[in-house]
Amino acid sequence: MVTALNNRIDKRFAKLRDEGRKALVTYIVAGDGGLENTVDLMHQLVASGSDLIELGVPFSDPMAEGPVIQKGHERALEQKASLRKCLALVKEFRAKDAETPVILMGYANPIEKMGAEAFADGLKEAGADGALTVDLPAEEAGPLNDLLKARKLCNIFLLTPTTSDERIAQITRLASGFVYYVSLKGVTGAGHLDLDSVRDNLARIRRHTDLPLCVGFGIKDGASAKAVSADGDGAVVGSVLVSAVGASADGAEAKDRIGVLVGEMRSALDA
Fold first, then answer.
1. What percentage of the chain has pLDDT greater than the value 90?
2. How many other CB atoms are found less than 10 A from the CB of residue 142?
3. Which of 78, 153, 237, 261 is at a distance of 20 to 30 A from 22, taking alpha carbons?
4. Helix, coil or strand: residue 159
5. Distance from C-alpha of 265 to C-alpha of 237, rounded to nearest angstrom
6. How many other C-beta atoms lie within 10 A of the C-beta of residue 82?
7. Is the whole model's pTM more than 0.85, yes or no?
8. Residue 1 pLDDT class (50, 70, 90 cuts)
9. Is 161 exposed, middle or buried (0-12, 13-18, 19+ CB in 10 A)?
10. Contact at 8 Å (CB) between 73 and 242?
11. Could you give the CA distance from residue 24 to residue 207 in angstroms, rounded to a whole number?
12. CA–CA separation, 132 vs 184, rounded Å?
């Protein structure tokens, strides 16, 4: 069993569970398409049906990311996006939206540079609800985990098809909010979904935790979002949204593009 922190993430999943609905978790890179447009894009995600937002913290070496999201990070870094600016964007988003959970998804290096305690304080002050640090292994996550938990912030962890039962148990003891299951071996945006493998591995993870399980990597449209969420609690979509932002001429076009994509996925999940 897990201890709920009773923050926005826990409340959102409880609400979805009561409604019999699946979560749609959306990812964009902060600063991609212009720092001045990021908050508008976040509001568009919510208006189109997103339940939780993962805001990518731009980094020069975003491991696990495929070429689409790598280019999104490069575009954001050209806009001088940074961890501190990401926190400022979350605070600006909170001025109009006090309900939608926001998670900062990034890498250990910027957190180490800022300092773990300052990072945890920054998340709390900005109104974020947690963090997902892609390259922070469970063996080294304890100190940050304690800092986040003390502030009722969630620490989201990734599990993959190759994660052993022993490590699943170790990671889920630390995790809060939800668990992000990587549906395939490879990077974001790559490969083809193996739904039998997703089903089997979600069942394996459920033996260790009652946290919600959301499935990401390879989710490209409403059909794939609905398919992976059938045995889980939600779908995480990123590459197709980052691609849409990158293909747009300006912020208004980007809003229109992601609005259509998210709306289609929301409709499919609710069908």
1. 86
2. 10
3. 153
4. strand
5. 9
6. 20
7. yes
8. very low
9. middle
10. no
11. 23
12. 18
Could you read off the pLDDT of 83-109 as tens digits, one per residue?
999 999 999 999 999 999 999 999 999
In the numeric block, which tokens belong to residue 179? 């668990």
- In Å, how far are 26, 28, 75 from 72, measured between CA atoms? 15, 8, 5
Residue 102 has φ and ψ, to the nearest 5°, of: -130, 130
Q: Is 111 helix (H, G, I), strand (E, B) or coil?
A: helix
* Contact assessment for residue 96 and residue 18, using Cβ atoms and an 8 Å cutoff: no
Gyration radius from the chain CA atoms: 17
> How many residues are recorded in the chain?
271
Express each pLDDT in 7-23 by its tens digit: 999 999 999 999 999 99
Contact 165, 189 (CB under 8 A): no
Report the half-sphere exposure of 243 (CA within 13 A, side-chain side).
Answer: 14
Residue with tokens 């003390």: 150
C-alpha pair distances (Å), 83 with each of 58, 103, 122, 178:
8, 13, 10, 23
Cβ-contact 95, 113 below 8 angstroms: no
Listed in sequence order, the residues at least 6 apart from 132 whose beta carbon sits closer than 8 Å to its beta carbon are 54, 103, 104, 105, 106, 155, 156, 157, 158, 180
Q: Select from 78, 84, 118 the least CA-distant residue to 104.
A: 84
Two structure tokens written together for 155: 């620490």
Residues 241, 262 contacting (CB under 8 angstroms): yes
Q: Out of 61-65, 86-90, 241-245, 252-256, pick the least confident.
A: 61-65
Measured N-to-C along each axis, helices 35-48 and 83-94 cross at an angle, to the nearest 10 degrees, of: 50
188: number of CA atoms within 13 Å, CB side?
26
**Residue 164's CB: how many other CB atoms inside 10 A?**
9
